[in-house]
Design a protein that fits this description.
This protein is α+β, with helices and mostly antiparallel strands and 351 residues long. The protein has two domains: 2-148, Aminopeptidase (3-Layer(aba) Sandwich); 161-344, Gcn5-related N-acetyltransferase (GNAT) (Aminopeptidase, 3-Layer(aba) Sandwich). The chain has helices at residues 14-20, 32-44, 46-51, 111-125, 140-148, 168-174, 177-192, 208-225, 234-249, 252-259, 303-314, 332-336; strands spanning 2-5, 53-60, 66-75, 79-80, 85-86, 89-92, 130-136, 151-163, 197-202, 263-270, 273-282, 286-294, 323-328, 340-349. The relative contact order is 0.16.
């Protein structure tokens, strides 16, 4: 049996969702509380609030209990503006957000439940292309889609995680000679300049001053990373303004840091100034890194790498922590920390 829910009555399945989100294939990105922030983000962004229709397709077992939820976003028409476009299609809630791993919500996978959910999608949203992106390759959903549909396209991305070390000293020794030298050089430069380096972990953003500095650091990184810091152009100006607006009004990560108990923040201060930060979500055995931003002012001291190294070694020997997940992207620093790859699938198909 299938039931469909929308934003205005989502609270009716809150208890079912929270019961299912503890499944072994679920991550922090499948939790009910994080999903509410994503929905709030959609409602506050004008174009998405107009064109995106979040729907939650639930399968009920023979006992009338919800055993699988497909959190979807339906966009029936494409939008093409000069500087912005939105393709029609059906995707999993979390597309184009900080949700690095997307999935249906289930404790135990059931092909029968998935059959009924996709049949419902076909009957009610037929003709709209499905784009299920960032689905972990080793997940049951990825296996089901691969085996049951003729794919128009299948590609993907790479994510990287670091296993929690048993011993911090042994982990340091396992790093490459060049990586160990980089760590020593960073600390030597700090000592040479008589700079103090303090790395602390918090459950939330300490104060508004720190929050503003974090916004500025992340905004500057975005501008530099996307080549918006060069010669003036209308396109660069529009993108910069849009990003600053998102930073201050719609940043799900900062909202999570202030409202969710599953959030965490690692701050690195050099001579009392915030030089950068790592932040994200955590579940029972994994810390997920969602933002990694550092000030160019302190670049010579490698604050980003020192903070990442500190995060990995911070839980060394703690058997309850399985890994530090640096999520999507193949940046060099992840491999220098002895990172391991895992694949994510992007599926495009019709039903």
């Amino acid at each position: 049996m299938i039931k469909e829910y929308f934003i205005n009555n989502l609270s009716k399945i809150e208890n079912d969702w929270k019961r299912l989100e503890i499944g072994t294939e679920m991550t922090s990105f499948q939790t009910y509380d994080w999903s509410l922030l994503l929905l709030k983000d959609i409602k506050e962004k004008l174009l998405r609030s107009i064109f995106w229709k979040p729907v939650f397709v639930c399968h009920l077992n023979s006992g009338g209990e919800v055993d699988m939820i497909a959190p979807l976003v339906v966009q029936s028409k494409s939008l093409n503006l000069r500087f912005y476009s939105m393709m029609s299609g059906i995707c999993i809630l979390g597309e184009k957000s900080y949700s690095d791993y997307l999935n249906f919500i289930y404790n135990k996978w059931s092909d029968e439940a998935a059959d009924e959910i996709f049949s419902f999608i076909h009957e009610n949203y037929g003709g709209i292309e499905l784009r299920l992106n960032n689905v972990p390759e080793n997940s049951s959903l990825a296996g089901y889609v691969t085996n049951h549909f003729e794919l128009i396209n299948r590609d993907g991305e790479t994510a990287v995680f670091v296993d929690n070390p048993v011993d911090a000293d042994e982990y340091y020794k396992s790093l490459s000679k060049n990586t160990r030298q980089n760590i020593r050089t960073a600390y030597n430069r700090l000592a040479k300049n008589s700079f103090e380096c303090e790395i602390t972990m918090c459950d939330t953003i300490p104060d508004k001053t720190t929050e503003k500095v974090m916004h500025d650091i992340h905004n500057d990184r975005f501008i530099k990373k996307n080549g918006l810091d060069g010669k003036f152009s209308i396109k660069k100006f529009m993108w910069t303004c849009a990003h600053k607006n998102n930073e201050t009004r719609h940043n799900c990560v900062f909202t999570a840091l202030k409202t969710l108990s599953s959030s965490w923040l690692l701050l690195i201060r050099i001579n009392g100034e915030v030089a950068g930060y790592l932040c994200g979500l955590k579940d029972k055995d994994t810390y997920y890194v969602m933002q990694n931003s550092f000030s160019e002012k302190f670049r010579e001291f490698s604050p980003g790498f020192l903070a990442c190294y500190n995060l990995v070694t911070r839980f060394a020997g703690n058997n309850e922590i399985k890994c530090i997940d640096f999520t999507r992207g193949t940046e060099d620093y992840k491999y220098k920390l002895n990172g391991t790859e895992k694949r994510l699938c992007n599926f495009t198909f019709n039903i």
